[in-house]
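Hello,

Following up on my earlier ticket. Below are the two sequence lines again, exactly as submitted.
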Amino acid sequence: MFAILKKENLTETVVRMELDAPYIARKAQAGQFVILRADERGERIPLTIAGYDRARGTIEIIFQIVGGATMCLGARKAGESIPDLVGPLGMPTALEGLKKVAVVGGGVGCAIALPVAKRLKELGASVTGIVGFRSRELVILEEEFKGCCDRFFLTTDDGSYGEKGNVCAPLGRLLAEETFDEVITIGPLVMMKFVAEATRPYGVKTVASMNPIMIDGTGMCGCCRLTVGGETKFACVDGPDFDAHLIDFDEAIRRSRIYTQFEARKREEHCNLLHKI
Amino acid sequence: MMNNSLTKTPMPVQSPEGRSRNFCEVALGYTAEQAVAEADRCLHCKNRPCVSGCPVSVAIPDFIALVKEGKFGEAYGVISRYSCLPAVCGRVCPQENQCEKLCVRGVKGEPVAIGRLERFVADFHAKEGVAPEKPQKNGRRVAVVGSGPAGLSCAGELAKRGYEVTVFEALHVAGGVLMYGIPEFRLPKEIVAREVEGLKALGVTIVTNAVVGKTFTVEELKAEGFEAVFLGTGAGLPNFMGIKGENAKGVFSANEYLTRVNLMKAYEEGSETPVYPAKKVAVVGGGNVAMDAARTARRLGAEVTVVYRRSRAELPARREEAEHAEEEGVVFRLLANPKEILTDGEDNVVGVKCIEMELGEPDVSGRRRPVEKAGSEFVLEADCVIMALGTSPNPLLKRATAGLETGRRREIVADEGGRTSLDGVFAGGDAVTGSATVILAMGAGKRAAESIDEFLKNR
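Thanks for your patience. The regenerated structure is below:
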């Protein structure tokens, strides 16, 4: 069993949890993920590690409540335990040697972009943070980003906070003026696809952190496969980071929707269940 | 007067109509009377050919003699000296290619039903619930990586010899392919859990949610005081064909499909894990995993066609599995091979373009090589395709283990006794051989345990 040490709501549907996981904390690196189950009958949920404290033996996860499984997880309280937690899985984000990087996060993906930005700062890189949200009430981790970014840009789709528009606007302006060793993007597939298109003409190396549907997370099921440069790759063992200019984003978007109907039904069932209680 | 019947005592089974709609075990097992009658067919040959056909060399005529006398508990005692998982082997071993193939009764008529008798004895023992004797601990620690058949048999063998064994499992339950791969209707998960409990009773510790190569490395395990490490990590990565449309919505590896249903219980009402709601399923491949996937899809309500590129005679599945599949309404499209997966505008699978095959000259495996018949393309209608084409070893452990030699197909290189290129590190099962059977993995685990014992005694 793995204890939930802290729990806090970052927005109405985005939750941060600190979990007691000494073995994972000892090894975790930015870009890696864990798989957990919220209860004994629960689904295996892959979540990128949002932070870790090696000394205290804890890791942090930040997740959005989207379907039945994340709804169950969101219903767990600090002081309770979850039965299963395994990791750190996947390859760490390659950050060594980078001098000037733009980290582009979208929505709850910012939770994963943050440890990458922090680690880059520790390594002495110049970090430009660009984060985008749908609207003001969905903004998360603004102060944390400001704390580790040399420059920081925030956009909202509806203009209710920061710059109106999406992350590609500030990114495009910067790219027109200067260059980066690398652009790292983490967020919704559609956003990452557009970030890749924005950087492609400038030939700036761009890395996207993929978060496809997974079961085991160790290469056994092949559920997380995607096409990168014409080859089939398994996100869980070969990734989750890939060259964004080579990823077939359209296929990844279609594959991410395989179980949309099932998820909608589950969400409804869980809502009904939670209301009854 | 011995039982001179030319055929095996029939095994009671669920009717095909009933079982193709449920996930309960298909074969129901012998009664005591049936077991005794079948045991009475054994000739007790002096040279014991059946034993040489068994990868773990169970003293088959000895346990059968005890069954004949009604001494079922003692019969279990005989089997358990050789095999850690008799309830599993009695159900999933390809006996027709092993012990039963060499049975003298099989020369004229059917061989003795050794597998059914093994299952009966193991189930009898489970019902009696006799706890095993706890061996005297020798204070020396061994780590076993992976809790599939290779790992469990290695762990059991070492525990019996007094070693303190810890098994590390990546998933949230122990059992490996016995839990995630082989379906409930062929190997009830309760039986696997029981065998795992049996190992715990021998003093084996099981740590779930631990990926060696990620959570711990082999080096760290050694530094923590494990004097030897056995790698039974299985053949992880599912193979695909590399044809167009393979990443479309509705194409799954058999591993994924079976894991969703078996491990995550997607067949149960209210399961949190979804399974694709298919109406017409094409399963590609002819092995046991293909049969498992086909029969699972059938139980979930689909029309199912197995597409296999060779003929019936080359079908690698256990004969009984193929027969059961057919009885349950699975259609076999033999001598056919997919060329492309057809999709609609939204990338949903709508069919499989196949080509007819014919058998040419024998290839390196000794089987006749299938060759395409020019111009024989046809389309098989399907909204779901399950690829059951075997697996390749997982790169994860190799990446994290410097000096561990692997072969051309990334398999771990190990000798007969499971010794790898690293001192004190042993390996066996699918991680070494590529996709094979439960019993071969068990045999490898057992042999590695003997090597580990020898290695540690000489240290």
